[in-house]
Amino acid sequence: MDLFEYQGKELFARAGVSVPEGRVATTPAEARAAAEELGGRVVVKAQVQVGGRGKAGGIKLSEGPDEAEAHAAAILGMDIKGHVVHRLWIEKASDIVAEYYASFTLDRAAKKHLAMVSARGGMDIEAVAAEDPDAVVGLHIDPVIGLTNWQASELVYRAGLDRGAARKAAAALRSLYGAFVSLDCDLVEVNPLILTGDGDIVALDAKVTLDSNAFFRHPDFEAFREAFTVDPIEALARERDLNFIKLDGSVGIVGNGAGLVMSTLDLVSLVGGKAANFLDVGGGAGEETMRNALEVLTHDPSVRSVLINIFGGITRCDQVTGGIIGAAGTLDLPWPLVVRLDGTNAEEARAMLAEVASDRIVPAATMREAAEKAVLLAAED
Ligand code: GDP
Ligand code: MN
Fold first, then answer.
1. Percent above pLDDT 90 for the chain
2. I need a surface site. Which of 50, 92, 207, 378 has the fewest CB within 10 A?
3. In whole angstroms, how far apart are CA 315 and each of 253, 347, 355?
4. pTM exceeds cut of 0.90
5. Ligand 1 pocket: which of 67, 96, 103 to mutate (most atoms <8 Å of CB)?
6. Interatomic CA distance for residues 230 and 233, integer angstroms
């Protein structure tokens, strides 16, 4: 999971890496208040997960609250390479003497961590590397030993960072590496890592990718995840471990596996309908999962009919059907269900469905038939 800059900086601060003090703002008024609190010159920064915000006009230096408010009004809602700005980070302006680059990633082939450092930060590092490969220095780090003091100093010297800042720069690299390891990151990239007029090393940008498979070790990361889900139905689905994406049609789609759900979407549009959502219940779905899925859909007012398309592998079709029938009996579902199942225990499942078949629970033999029936029912309602 990729974090926003302000989230990455929060983690950096916890790991002992210096970052400018700042505040999140979602309105021009909040940006003004943040600037008043911070005092002096501030930088208004668009929080979108794409590089080159500076060039795109998403980063503006402001002399004070008035200007911060005006810049915030201009940046909020801006489209930066397809990412709409909903949130800003207002931070104290830094006194930049030099801009460096530093990153830590996994080098899977080498089975080691890889540090990359350059004295030419602040710009597109791929362009720097293409133009002058020696300007970016790399170093493999044994994950068991970690980044030693000696190695960090070597990186600083080889990359040609300012001599006067060498000790602090090496310490900053070690703190960043500490964050990379202890927070289970796939990537930590700081561009620019700056040298200030006071001789301090400060992370001015933060690109952090967390390994979501390690979330069980970091319960506090859930708060980061929440910042991404604006849609309340998506948030509810996520709470139930379901993958829900809102679309703009009227047929609710429930399937197991992204591939199956996508082909179901295609079929629905092929027969002239439009999907209201994409709901993937994942592998091994049982009764509880189906109940949760249907409950999530009851919160989506644009749903007119629901198409359930399940392929049983590890998932057992009879269990899924038990869940559907149970949910239909207790949840008072506001729309009809069309159900198509195949695979493990499909015979048993079909027999169960045949017993309860009605105008509210409609069995279908094939995907196409299911799509046609669901589209028809959505139009009727
Ligand atoms: P990116 O363009 O999305 O990578 O955004 P960055 O956060 O890296 O900012 C781009 C550039 O804006 C930096 O390289 C700096 O030159 C400039 N910048 C960002 N914050 C400050 C600041 O506090 N003070 C000053 N003077 N410049 C800043
Ligand atoms: Mn940057």
1. 80
2. 50
3. 17, 14, 21
4. no
5. 96
6. 9
Spacing, Cα 58 to ligand 1 middle (Å): 10
Q: What is the DSSP letter of 373?
A: H
Judged on CB neighbours under 10 Å (0-12, 13-18, 19+), 102 is buried
CATH 3.30.2130.30 at 96-225, yes or no: no
Spans of all domains in the chain? 21-92, 96-225, 232-380
Q: Which CATH class is domain 232-380?
A: alpha beta
Quick one: CA dihedral 23, 28, 30, 34, positive or negative?
positive
Sign of CA pseudo-dihedral 208, 214, 218, 223:
positive
User: Would you state the pLDDT for residue 220?
Assistant: 87
CA of 15 to the centre of ligand 2 (A): 20
Give, as one character, the DSSP assignment of residue 147: -
The percent of residues above 70 in pLDDT, for the chain, comes to 99
- CA atoms of 9 and 188, how far apart (whole Å): 11
CATH fold for domain 21-92: Dna Ligase; domain 1 (3.30.1490)
